[in-house]
Design brief:
about 5% strand; three-stranded mixed sheet; mainly alpha; 6 strands; three-stranded antiparallel sheet; 20 helices
Length: about 475
């Protein structure tokens, strides 16, 4: 069939139209929260699969109606150019996968009817950042300013309609607010390089500022506090959604920065700072978890420990390093989602994730409790969990250079394991008041699927090879 539109429909108009329609529909149909979330999850999954399968070497995609979609048509707004490329298409597809997973888990409880709308607005904003290819300043310099806006919007998702303190969600603003001035000043130094290319001090200053900006955006210790605090005060699914999108964006921005300005790595102490602060982040996650009295905060500290390993893996940018980073990130997403499935079900039944309120809940809700334990332990690389292969590979890489940091991380992970052991003893301890609680068939099914995926990845991590290879196009 001959296309009736030779020029083709611009892809960006379709994708942003999709986001706007989905957000509008989610808002106006919010009275049917669970069905809206479920329908949104299916739509996000279909669009993600379409994006993932696109062949950008063929710029025109033919629709069954005969119309064509121009995949490479740029969108220009006030000097900013947005365009789909091989370096951002996989990232946008992963955004949509995270959105689909978050909406699917939200459909199990449907506690906050505004969450689906916020998912589409936030995911659309991050998609806009990923698509930015040209700006009055280099795109990597302008991106942190957009992150300030997106993290501000994310505060509403983290609040989740609750009356609890906003101190935790508001901490998520700190990294981007602190990093943006460094990127802007670093961008000014970059503009001076062509004027005096022989002056090495210019590239050194630009490299130092950009590397420090990336480091702040990664939110290592002591800027890590937003996620454990949000784990305690925010809905678990909102914490997972916001943190995963933000962290994936920062990793993509780090890859773009090193690719566009190689001197950032050569002219700065990138490896030293990434190694030192990544190690400190992993250690602090293990130490702080020992005294956690809230299941959500314990989960947050486990996520901080896992994030420290990812920062460590960034110490030497390159194909091998990015392969390990993406492997860790995918395993992180699986472990986080498994934990959220369990935590959401437990919170719905008990009204709180305080450990004292969970006493005996494991006897009444064994599947959801198992999801919490197996997913949380996956974030510290416990054997037979999804995160084991990634953590073991990282520890091996570290031990080849120096065994002491690897041993320190193992010791720190023991602290988190002890926290989950304490949680397991409370959850599976006898408690007469829990006799009235019943685990719904929906919660059992969701937990069983999450556990099956976790165990499958734990036993055969090579299932992720094709996915990671495809995603590498956007990072390496």
């Amino acid at each position: 069939m001959t296309p009736v539109n030779a020029a083709g429909l611009p892809f960006l108009l379709l994708i942003f139209g999709f986001y706007l329609v989905a957000a509008g529909a989610s808002f106006y149909l919010r009275a049917w929260g669970r069905w809206v979330a479920l329908g949104g999850a299916v739509a996000a999954l279909l669009v993600a699969a379409w994006l993932w399968s696109l062949d950008l070497s063929l710029p025109l995609w033919v629709l069954p109606t005969g119309w064509t979609v121009d995949l490479e048509a740029p969108l220009q707004l006030s000097g900013y150019t947005f365009q789909l490329q091989a370096t951002n298409a996989p990232v946008i597809a992963i955004y949509l996968l995270i959105a689909a997973l978050s909406l699917l888990i939200h459909a199990l409880s449907g506690a906050d009817d505004a969450f689906p709308t916020l998912v589409w607005l936030i995911a659309g904003g991050y998609t806009l950042v990923a698509l930015l290819t040209s700006a009055p300043t280099p795109p990597v310099v302008a991106a942190p300013v957009f992150l300030i806006i997106l993290t501000t919007l994310s505060v509403y998702a983290l609040q989740g309609g609750r009356t609890t303190s906003l101190s935790g969600p508001l901490r998520a603003l700190l990294p981007s607010v602190l990093a943006a001035p460094l990127f802007l000043i670093g961008g000014w130094w970059i503009e001076q390089i062509p004027l005096n290319p022989q002056d090495l001090a210019i590239t050194q200053n630009a490299g130092a500022l950009l590397s420090l900006g990336v480091l702040l955006l990664l939110a290592p210790f002591p800027l890590h506090g937003a996620w454990p605090a949000a784990g305690e005060s925010s809905p678990p699914v909102a914490m997972m959604f916001v943190s995963m999108l933000y962290q994936l964006t920062v990793l993509h921005l780090a890859a773009q920065t090193v690719s566009a300005f190689p001197f950032v790595y050569r002219q700065s102490d990138w490896s030293l700072w990434m190694s030192a602060l990544g190690l400190m982040t992993a250690l602090w996650g293990g130490i702080a978890a020992i005294g956690a009295t809230h299941a959500g905060r314990l989960w947050g500290y486990a996520a901080v420990h896992d994030w420290g390993l990812i920062v460590l893996a960034l110490a030497a940018p390159g194909l091998r390093s990015w392969t390990l980073v993406l492997f860790l990130f995918v395993l992180r997403a699986i472990s986080m989602a498994t934990t959220v499935v369990g935590l959401s079900a437990l919170e719905q039944q008990t009204g709180s994730l305080e450990m004292t309120r969970l006493r005996g809940i494991g006897l009444r809700m064994p599947w959801s409790s198992a999801a919490v334990l197996l997913g949380g332990l996956g974030l510290v690389g416990f054997p037979l969990t999804a995160g084991f292969a990634g953590h073991w590979a990282t520890l091996q890489s570290l031990a080849v250079v120096d065994w002491r940091p690897a041993m320190a991380i193992v010791v720190a992970s023991v602290g988190i394991m002890l926290g989950f052991v304490r949680l397991a003893r409370l959850m599976f301890g006898a408690h007469e008041a829990r006799l009235s609680i019943r685990e719904s068939a929906l919660s059992v099914g969701a937990a069983a699927v999450a556990l099956a995926i976790t165990i499958a990845v734990a036993t055969t991590p090579q299932l992720l090879n094709e996915f990671i290879t495809r995603a590498l196009a956007a990072f390496a």
